Protein 1
Amino acid sequence: MKIKFWGVRGSIPSPRAGTVRYGGNTTCIEIRTDNNELIILDGGTGIFPLSQTLLKELPVTANIFITHSHWDHIHGLPFFIPNFIPGNKMILHGALDPVSGRGVEQVMDVQLQYSYFPVREAEMKASIEYVSLSPGETVQAGSATITATLLNHPVVNFGYRVECNGKSLFFTGDHEPYSNIYSPGDESYEEYRGLVEAQERMVFDAMHGVDVLIADSSYTIDEYPAKKGWGHGTFDSCMQMADAIGAKILYCTHHEPTRDDDALEREFAKALERHPRREGMTDFRLAREGIEIEF
Amino acid sequence: MNNLSEELNKKLGEAVERMPAFPKSVQKILELTRDLNCSPKVLVQVIENDPVITMKILRVLNSAYYRLPSKITSINHSVVFLGLNTVKNIALSIAAIGILPKKNAAGFDVSQYLLHSLSTAAIAKHLGSKIGGADPMDCYVAGLLHDFGKIVFAQFMPEQFKVALETSMKDDISLFTAEQAAIGTDHTVVGSMLAEKWQFPEPLINSIRNHHSEKAGATVMGSCVYAANQISKKMGYGFAGDARVESLPPAVSKHFGININLDVLIDSIGDDELSKILEHAKQFAQVDAS
Ligand SMILES: [Zn+2]
Ligand SMILES: [Zn+2]
């Protein structure tokens, strides 16, 4: 399996001198199976440069998996160039919106309204297919098996486990560790604690033992208290999670748009000091636009 | 046993989608969602006090879409599973429908109905935790939803329901018997059919279906709801159109001990607990003095 990061920024594209090294595009990860089948996780602005590289291998079938419907994870979709060329195929996977009751096609519909984007879906020449997944559902994309797990974010967010030829990867999309809404002493505290533990166990089981874990580490532990409930993790929560599930490599991603490269490295280094590594433990890394690994 | 036609079942299911919630919860939800940092606890409390919102959230959660290995009845569980904001958004979308009108064409008082449902829920929870063998919060939810069929009648078949309410009063027969004559079915059937249609957990469906039948005695939860309903009526906590208090069938009373009748059971709960239950229910039901 091969992966390449095309966008590692959270919330909003952030191109500027201070973010040149890690990149300003929002979330997009390219995966190639050993048979060179194409899987794309999220359609942030990183999907645009990715899609340009696809023009040399047409016709292309893109298996896209959307973690959730926030802009920074879908914003690049209308600019996915292969959609404009006949013979290509896009299969867009994602969750159903429990509030509107609509499937994943909604993420295209809302963006392809004529006042906001000049091309209507009917005018796109490629074949476009929508697959709305249920939590826990497993689908096949070429030789890869992908399983969706419901995580914790303000909207329904799927983490995806991708498995192929004995290798595995888990991408959280946006995820905040679960916490108790009650205080010790409240009548419902214990009940809620049990529910949280059960839910966390289920999530950890879904991630268990992956070769690569890519996780939302938007905040530092100092920033977190003011952002609790916003649906994002910290460097530290990701490191603890990676250790708990026994990942070989952790990539911290969804970097804060205001955090310049130097600050990013500094905060990451501080978190690393709090979680010292020994031989055989998870290798902690920062996701950077453009890096490619094979495992 | 009356069965709803497929068509009526579908029609009622769709109608409930458009059914508004109770005034106090709508007001509370709008207030809470204006505040970015609203307390999750308060939101859960609002939902747990509104049968319409509880019903709709359980519907989303237990739908085939979520493929849950075991069914969910607790609002806390729904918050952990779906996330606070999704639950908040569902609540908000229900609040946006409007407010359940206090005056409906059936002449059915929705605040008194809510008071009856809330007190039944709290008493069922109390009984459940006292005798064991049923999850107290499940008993609470079953008590909260046991009469849901009535609010559906009041909202969507007001003329026929009005006839049932009047006949029950005039002829001193229980409301569900009068409903069968006037509507061709009764609120236990409609309530449980909706719960079944929305794939609620089996014990919850059964507790709604059997709350006027001795079959309630088959489970602890069913017995708690049966008894709580009669206690609430006997105490005059709210009014849901049925003035008759039924005695506990042996199949039900046996769960609470030997020689237990309604009065003994009421005594065993105690005045303190009962007045606490009434006070809490009143806060939410917004019953005015008039
Ligand atoms: Zn994001
Ligand atoms: Zn997000």
Protein 2
Amino acid sequence: MAAPEPFTGATSHSPVQHHILSVLVENKAGVLARVAGLFARRGFNIYSLAVAPADDHQRFSRITIVVDAESAPLEQIKGQLNKLVNVVDIKDLAPRESLERELLLATVPVSDTTRTVVMDAVAQANAAIVDVGSESVTIMLASTPIACDALERRLESFAHVELHRTGRVALPRLSSH
Amino acid sequence: MQITGAQALIKSLEQVGVDTIFGLPGGAILPVYDPLIDSSIRHILVRHEQGAGHMAEGYALATGKPGVAMVTSGPGATNIVTPIANAYMDSTPLVVITGQVPTANIGTDAFQECDITGITMGITKHNFLVTSAHEIPRAVAAAFHIATTGRPGPVLVDVPKDVSQGTMTWWWPESLDDLDLPGYHPTSEIDDADITAAAQLIAEAQRPLLYIGGGALKSHASRELVAFAEKTNMPVVTTLMARGAFPDSHPQHLGMPGMHGMYAAVTAMQQSDLLIALGARFDDRVTGRLDGFAPHAKVIHVDIDAAEFNKIRHADVSIRSDVRSAIVALDAVVTTTPNYATWWSDLHQWRAAHPLTYDTPDSDGPLRPQAVIEAIAAAASPGTIVTAGVGQHQMWAAQHWSYEEPGTWINSGGAGTMGFGVPAAIGAKVGRPDRTVWCIDGDGCFQMTAQELVTARAEGIPIKVAILNNAYLGMVRQWQEMFYDERYSEVYLSPDLPDYVKWAEAMGCVGLRAETPEQMEKVIAEANLVNDVPVVIDFRTDAREKVFPMVPAGATNDDIVVHPSQRGEK
Ligand SMILES: Cc1ncc(C[n+]2csc(CCOP(=O)(O)OP(=O)(O)O)c2C)c(N)n1
Ligand SMILES: [Mg+2]
């Protein structure tokens, strides 16, 4: 049985109580606006949000929302979300009992003097080089939010880094049941 | 059979049983107005789209059926945003059909284009942009299903012009599955464990209180409520949204709680050890400052909308159900009949010490607004429907009229929309032509939507309007007097500008005026003799009159301010 990862903060800068909602919605125009609008209107904070077609991609999409559980009681957030007619199902994934993964892409300028430091960072993070230019490389990391946070912090020491993260997706841990 | 989208729209409305549409045409909705000529549906042509929306609300609140309004795109649609927001706050079943620019023009800033589904996303229960003529029956059937089931509310259906002009083969969704609403589950079975837990709390309570909200009216629970209250001998309060759900004349009724509630009702909430909230949502106008609200009470919360539980106040037991079914379930398990003698002795004492009161009017005027309402009530036939605007007059109308049955009190509660009264009265009268309908209005409110009296006259809808003309935005004036050191800022309106009698006459109504108690009795009698056209009465009331009791904003219910004449005794 894999040991659960330590409870993680939702942001790389300030650890806050977070929760993951995996929301199955009808794949219709404007549904994302309905969900996002509801959060804005009711003062619920979204830390990250990822959307993609679900299994039956003609009809449904899955939105993975990381919510700041301090901005409102989770029961309220779920209750209000449930009232959206296009929301079909809400799974509430407690961080300790779920597997969270996120994708990070970063283009980092490299020179002869920095090349080895960058390569060290890549190797240490278990990241991959996915593109190589004459003066920069693009790094990819698909891992836990903590690992992405660590790599992001590491890369902060280089100038002119362009870094994007997807926001996480999650599934329940098999080992927790 | 091939028909146009417009024909399909009208046919769909007929199919769901619509008998009346309140609306006003324009470019994008033009195709739909053509087949309307051949339909059995009555269309009422309003003078402003806000009027159409509030009329549809008044119709819905008086009949229990969904109200329907139809308007054009752009400004037509934005003009009906206020009624949609109002219906959302008060959970009123409303279906609004809006025209939209042709599909190909959406997103181009076309003439009279506006993103009305985007604008109304946060103030509708749901909305649809229909993208093909074939989808019209499904959209209409789904709109009515959503508007009327679970917690009711407004639904908007936006129909682009090419969709209404397109053709389709007629079909009708025969089952709920055909509506294709996989995420909509408006009701669920009552959980027996919740009923058992509630019965346990009831058995332990010494000072229980039935706190009745608008959900009791929506679920037609009045008969069951009276039976349950009588069986248990519990006291009852009815919120502004629930007036009429439990007869005012019933000895167990303490009246309305809240900011302008009856002293006994407010104090009963504060002293209760068990609040049984039935279709009520702990609105701030009822609770006052939350950390001082009902400090000793456990809570049983019954609501069809599960998101209401623990939103404002922790519920010790929550029962997701419509009010009527929940009362039936509770009635089956609550057996003991404690008599709550100590509790009732306190309640009787509070009621006796602080009844509603106001100063006696002088015989040469000005009129006391409360006396005007009582005089109209005394001369009104039983079952008369009352609508109101928003302000002092609304509170007095809620306090000084005795509501004996559901659907007789129609007002704007959650949104507090000035100008609601006149169009709502028109809608109510259309829905219940057998009833007398009085609108108790303020002079400020009247000026916001009075033009709909032209509609009323043209369509033969004889409502009666009592303007409590205090020459002020009175409720705001009251706050400035009490909380801003009598510094009156932008609240004076003038009693004579406009001349309400001439204005009424110009709109084809009977216009009357009363300045003294004697004239008051006379004009009320006169108004009651008019049955064919609308009547408007300009009652000149005392501008200094204030609504009491009052729980000041930000104060707890314990700091209720009673009428000056009762202050020594408190
Ligand atoms: C559309 C709208 N605008 C402003 C307000 C704020 N407001 C609440 S009561 C009130 C005064 C209403 O005046 P009037 O209709 O004369 O009623 P009165 O209080 O004098 O009885 C105002 C301005 C409101 N509720 N609705
Ligand atoms: Mg006034």
